[in-house]
Amino acid sequence: MGNFQNITSSDGFVFPAYVAQPVGTAKAAIVVLQEIFGVNSHIQAVTDAYAAQGYLAIAPSTFHRVKKGVNLGYTAEDVDAGKALKAAAEAIPAQIMQDVQATVDFAAVQLPKGQKIGITGYCWGGMLTWRAASLVNGISAAAPYYGAGMTVGAELARQPRCPVMVHFGDQDTSIPMDTVQAFTAAQPAVDVQIYAANHGFNCDQRGAYDAASAKLALARNLSFFTINLIAA
Q: How far is the C-alpha of 91 from the C-alpha of 135, rounded, in Å?
């Protein structure tokens, strides 16, 4: 089990992050970026699971600038609240990336010298993970899950500075498959994985949860991080 610790961004803003420590010395670090529901019990469980694999795992509260203490469930009302918070946060994208950068910097201080940092995220956190791959210093691998918006517009043209593996569901109406195909064509260096699943398939608290797809995606993520953070 982890605990919340405060991290200070470059502009002095202080925000909480859920930090899970591995048993023994960390072999690398993973930053876990939240869905639109905050650093809730699911994101904490995901973070704990990466720590159990030997990683220092950190989930920053990327909504903290627009609302403190966000911890939503998955009802229709929660979805509406999360979408409103996402819209507010998307109005200050530079500050949100500052907080992601601060989280990466925080992780770097905790690690033995020379160890690497990866990043993964879900839903809105998947979008932020994709952005971070091109904008945040110190990331050695990025693995977004179903980041709505990352397959269209300006996001399509980003140039990641580290290896990227992306997970999409072919039944996800928020990320149409024709845009995934456009993304794949525009980003030939990105490893695009597609599952017979819906948006949110990784979350075992959502109706869209697909155990087989979640298990396979996690296995691929762990292999991807091993190759790029530990073996590299």
A: 17
